[in-house]
Amino acid sequence: ARAAAPARRAAAKLALGGCSSSGSSSKGALSMGRTRRASTKAAAVEFSFSGGSSASGVALADRPAWMKPFTIFASQVKAQRWREYWDREWNSRDITYAAFIGGMHLLCLAAPFTFSWANLAFGVAMYVVTGMLGITLSYHRQLSHKSFTTPKWLEYALAYCGVLSMQGPPIEWVSAHRYHHQFCDTPKDPHTPHEGFWHSHAGWLLDNDVNDERCGMRGNCQDMTRQPFYQWLERTYIWHPMLFGALTFAIGGFGALVWGVALRTVWVWHITWAVNSISHVWGKQAWNTGDESRNNLLIGILAFGEGWHNNHHAFEYSARHGLEWQQFDMTWISICFLKFLGLADNIRLPSEAAMNKLRLPPATA
């Protein structure tokens, strides 16, 4: 068990009950633990550093270098690694994921030798289809946060675009993300930067024993587990990207496979991961969210509006993340277009009263 400051432990104790048995309810997950916001900010720096001892009771001065607290470069975020990446037992999923992620990166090395304008166009198109329509619009804003509704046929079509991003089936992705919001930047957060930048970016994907403890339950997305379509995707997930890759190779050849599948997938992976890492370390905070979320311009552009992450953590339910006119949010524009076509409804936005309640003074923001 990981050590935590008394304030953190008390705050987390109530929250942990939701996933230690049958998981929190969908409604509870969507509320994202508003009541802990006030205390979380003060306790954030105490994530692992109070008491002078590690989870194993080792005094701070006696810890190995990799276990000692540190501040992430050019930020105010304090971190401490609890787990060695290499000097630990890897389970079969850790090894499989590492091999697959590494293999996809290696395949990208063929990109300079297979370039063509057609392959580039195909890769960019699939970046939009899987990255924006699949991840930011479907998996994130519609399924995870219920920011808007669409006809079921469109909801399922958009979710299928997310399947092709190779970030996991919808139920798994949504469940982990809801846990992230419910326990943001606490020891139960699957990808907090308080365990280091690499952990929040991709390292958490390769430590599945810990992930199972933190977010292995699926009780927080019963709204999806009851639907046969999402159950089917959970059972057959691996076959869909494989079939798409085979069709891409058969129609477009090796170059299309490299640009439209491998390079595009790796690009979307890192953009998505950067929301979890970069947007929790570098940027500005406009809202008193009680966590490390930041608004980051670069990620806001590359991730189709997801980089306005402090806005998002302030108002998780909001279909619009770029709340200011200058905060470009391509996913929000897409939702507005669906609304224009009569395909999006029940669009949720924060009220002025809610915004005034959480807004930080300009000097602080």
Structure description:
There is one protein chain. The protein has 365 residues and is mostly helical. It has one domain. Helix content is 53%, strand content 1%. The protein has 16 helices and 2 strands. A two-stranded antiparallel sheet has the order 1-2. Helix 5 crosses helix 12 and helix 5 packs across helix 15. The radius of gyration is 20 Å and the shape is globular. 44% of the residues are buried. The N terminus is likely disordered.
Number of helices: 16
The major beta sheet can be summarized as: 2 strands, antiparallel
Sheet-strand content, in percent, reads under 5%
The value of Rg in angstroms is 20 Å
List the secondary-structure elements in sequence, H or E: HHHEEHHHHHHHHHHHHH
Q: How much helix is in the residues?
A: 40-55%
**Broad structural category:** mainly alpha
Identify the strand order in the major beta sheet. Answer: 1-2
Mean pLDDT, to the nearest integer, reads: 86
Low-pLDDT segments:
1-57
Span between termini: 35 Å
Q: How many separate domains make up the residues?
A: 1
Number of strands: 2
Shape by Cα distribution: globular
